[in-house]
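This section describes the prediction task in plain terms. A model, or a person checking by hand, is given the sequence of a single protein chain and must write out its three-dimensional structure as a string of tokens. No templates, partner chains or ligands are provided. The sample shown here is typical of the held-out split.
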Amino acid sequence: MENKKKFKPDPDLKLMDQVREVLRYHHYAYRTEQTYWRAACPPPLPRFAIGS
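The expected answer:
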């Protein structure tokens, strides 16, 4: 069994950039990366004028 060094993302980056680094290191698919990104940072809901 090989002793591999554990990957550590750059601590100077923002959290989501660190997550992206780890996903790319482990060769996750780009679609998986997008899905994780959307789950963590959903787009804001649109504003609707109510009662105008």
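For orientation: The chain has a mean pLDDT of 81.
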